[in-house]
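This follows on from our talk about sequence and fold. I would like you to pick a protein and set down its sequence and fold. Go ahead and set the record down below:
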Amino acid sequence: MYTEILRIIEGGLAKDTKKVYSYSKLLAEKMGKDGDDRMSKMIMKAIENRMATTITMDELLTTPVDQESRLSIVDVSVPSVDSTPIVLPKLIDNKIADFINVVKHQSQLIQKGVETSNSLLLYGSPGCGKTTIAKYISEKTGLPLVVARFDAIVSSLLGNTAKNIRKIFDFADNKPCILFLDEFDAIAKARDDQYELGELKRVINSLLQNIDSFAKQNILIAATNHPELLDKAIWRRFNTVIEIGVPQDEELVRLLKTFVDDFNTDFTTDEKKCDKIAKLLIGKSPSDIKTIINNAKAKIVISNRDILQYEDVLIELFEFNNRGNLTVDGLVEYLNDNGVPQAAIADRMGISLRQVRNYLNKQS
């Protein structure tokens, strides 16, 4: 509760009624959960009576916009009731859990005089789960996710980009939330990048200043697919930095089972088939794997079948790997090489067993 009390004091000193309202409401909710219903009701009565004329929930939900385009520069995502599936290596999973625990125990840390910066930088290849991790942290902490929209932030008007950045940080500072800067490299590029415009170079200084003041008291997550583009000074602003790579070995099996757990299958309990699919998925991102599995699910639903079969996944894998170069003989060979019986190949592809054998004989 110390966190909320400090934010209320800050809001009062700055005459920021939105901030006072948001954190007072959060404090009342926490006190109610802890069993102090009397004080919780007193706080709610105080803020409803004194702030009803100055602030409404509509105002709290009004997002800042770019002056030139009038586009909203943030999206606000309320934590989902359903848990976001997340499969990570043990060490990375532990680091994410540590970050969540620091956020959850911020009041105790403040009480003990421990200074922490709730800032997390995620980097790695596209589709490996950086955005999913941000949503997962939002769910685990119960805090809304304020996502910066960089397509609207960067303005053609001189000086507006820096103003937009300031608007985003001010908006997130007004309420209990997590500020998520996705595709962070769009505005955090190295200042010595000779290919960037002078305006974008000057924006970095504004970004650094805002991060410094924001991350001391709030929760900040940034993600990038291009860590090599980030300004060197950016890295020092994050107390937790995690590389999110493509899944390996047992993570692939866990991901596969996670994505198909709402369907009946003939392979999740068959260790040999499961391991075979996992090996074929090596090098694929979680996003790729989800796309492959969803495509397979869609086809069995459309064909009124009840079981997602081993060969269904193999067919989608083959099509994913050979976009623009799909051949019947190539698919027949692929299924045969991965243990699908010739009769099952003929049945699934709607061709005769003789045709299957002819295709295979041509390849031998």
